[in-house]
Specification:
Blueprint (H helix, E strand, L loop, with lengths): L2 H18 L2 H6 L1 E8 L6 E2 L1 H14 E15 L2 E14 L6 E14 L2 E9 L2 E2 L4
Parallel strand pairs: 1-6
Antiparallel strand pairs: 1-2, 3-4, 4-5, 5-6, 5-7
Length: 130
């Protein structure tokens, strides 16, 4: 498997772990010093910080999404990937789902032969439903 295929497989593993609520698998896909950026929020630093936020989110919401990889660029032991993402967040207690969409830019580092998320800029915004 070449590096581009490995990164595509990484995204599929991330999706399956997200849908299954498999926090440990998500942590395993991240560098310990990963940084997550979201509009209007301070940077989320570290895989453990991300895991705590994800645990909180999935305790309150069902999360589903579609993702399209728009571009993968490999630079030796680093890579970046731009995706288009559409997320549906449905409260577990009932109520209207929230739809968010936009782009992400993910930076990967190759460590111990595998690709890990190092930085992720999530530029999603709420999509009004008509």
């Amino acid at each position: 498997m070449n590096d581009g295929q490995a990164i595509r497989a990484w995204f599929e593993t991330w999706r399956q772990a997200t849908l299954a609520g498999d926090v440990q698998q998500l942590i395993d896909l991240c560098a310990d010093d990963a940084v997550f950026l979201q509009p209007g929020r301070p940077p989320m630093r570290g895989a453990d910080t991300f895991a705590a936020a994800f645990r909180s989110a999935i305790s309150q919401f069902c999360i589903d999404y579609t993702s399209t990889i728009e571009e993968i660029r490999i630079h030796g032991d680093h890579a970046h990937c731009w995706t288009t993402l559409a997320v549906t967040i449905t409260p577990r207690t009932g109520g209207e789902p929230v739809h968010r969409a936009g782009n992400t830019l993910t930076v990967f580092e190759k460590r111990n032969g595998g690709w890990l998320l190092s930085r992720d800029a999530n530029m999603l915004v709420t999509v009004p439903q008509v």
